[in-house]
Automatic annotation (TrEMBL):
Residue span(s) of domain Pyrroline-5-carboxylate reductase dimerisation: 162-266
Pathway: Amino-acid biosynthesis; L-proline biosynthesis; L-proline from L-glutamate 5-semialdehyde: step 1/1
EC numbers, comma separated: 1.5.1.2
Keyword Amino-acid biosynthesis carried by entry: yes
Species: Pseudomonas veronii
One BP term from GO: L-proline biosynthetic process
Subcellular location, principal: cytoplasm
UniProt name for this protein: Pyrroline-5-carboxylate reductase
């Protein structure tokens, strides 16, 4: 990425996070530019990162190597069709818009090399995880560029089939909300057990953070970590057995299945 020039179409939170991550990794401000219809948004991202900004998308992509589409899914068709006359065949298009398939983008953009990504909101803290899928037109060098781009805000994992992005959406794209829900529920239960809301919430949130850190740094899987902290006949076993008696695993499977189904459904609706 040392000589790669990147244009962001859309300068919202996720674009700002990626730009910040790239700048932290050593990319120069002159290598990055962004376009956005909002004057305040352009002024803010320019002041924060020292990059050039544009109101016109077509102007922003002139002379760049990578174009990052960071717009709302509902706006993708119009944005792609407006960019098409200005695109160069070598320019890599990276989409971080949920639910827009590569086939739809190829129909709107033409035969551009495309990498479709599914990041999640912890990318705002550079603790994200993204699933990536590349079309056949994407070169090895361009795959590396996309990998480095998304790795600036967390980890990036390649998928062999585009349809797997629906599962990525279900597990990690929507996943932060599941943990927020669990923290909410644990906080409420702690209050009922006699704790103040502030203490219960801190206990739940910090426990979630610690457990996640143990999982990602351990040389064993989550199931083994759970076994190691579940003493026979102890308090943890009592809680785990209560979860399982309530159908915890089946409920999680059903919930993620619903998210994946909705992801596929949205792709069909938005790709028309």
């Amino acid at each position: 990425m040392s000589n790669t020039r990147i244009a962001f179409i859309g300068a919202g939170n996720m674009a700002a996070s990626l730009i910040g991550g790239l700048r932290a990794k050593g990319l120069q401000a002159q290598q990055i530019r962004a376009s956005d219809p909002g004057a305040e948004t352009r002024a803010r991202i320019s002041a924060e990162h020292g990059i050039d900004t544009f109101a016109d998308n077509a102007e922003a992509i002139q002379g760049v190597d990578v174009i990052v589409l960071a717009v709302k899914p509902q706006a993708m068709k119009a944005v792609c069709e407006s960019l098409r006359p200005s695109l160069q065949p070598h320019q890599l298009v990276v989409s971080i818009a949920a639910g827009i398939t590569c086939a739809s983008m190829n129909r709107w953009l033409g035969a551009q090399p495309i990498v479709r990504c599914m990041p999640n909101t912890p990318a705002l803290l550079r603790k994200g995880v993204s699933g990536l899928y590349a079309t056949a037109q994407v070169s090895a060098e361009q795959r590396d560029q996309a990998q480095e781009l998304l790795s600036a805000v967390g980890i990036a994992l390649w998928l062999e089939q585009e349809e797997q992005l629906d599962a990525v959406t279900a597990v990690s794209g929507s996943g932060p909300a599941y943990f927020f829900l669990l923290i909410e529920a644990m906080t409420a239960a702690g209050v009922k057990l006699g704790l103040s809301r502030d203490i219960a919430e801190q206990l739940a949130a910090q426990t979630a953070l610690g457990a996640a850190q143990m999982t990602v740094t351990s040389d064993v899987d989550a199931a083994e970590l759970r076994r190691r902290v579940t003493s026979p006949g102890g308090t943890t076993q009592a809680a785990i057995e209560s979860f399982q008696a309530g159908g915890f695993e089946a409920l999680v499977e059903k919930a993620l299945g619903a998210a994946a189904h909705r992801s596929a459904e949205m792709a069909e609706q938005l790709g028309k």
